[in-house]
Specification:
The protein has 101 residues and is mostly helical. It is built from four helices and two strands. The chain has helices spanning 3-12, 25-28, 35-48, 63-71; strands spanning 57-60, 76-79.
Length: 101
Amino acid sequence: IKGTTLRKVLEQLNIARYFDFQLYSDEAGLSKPNTAFFQLLLNEIAAIRSIERHQIIHIGDNIKTDILGAENMGIRSLQVNSNNVSLIKLIPDATQHLFIA
């Protein structure tokens, strides 16, 4: 799922404000579980504040790429499950140009 789509979903659900920042692999040009992606995550966090890796949580839906990728870098993770509901259904009046992969 593209970062632009996920940003819209988080805004529509009124929860985007709870995240210090959002980093998406398609926008960073790095596929997970590539350690370079998670190092970029750590670098972005370090630019904001000094916190320990165990205080960070990476949220994703894929065990191999999101969960194990984060945990291999010492970052906690949280797997989300869409319960087979398309994210597009979470956006009221979603436009046709949104791409869900």
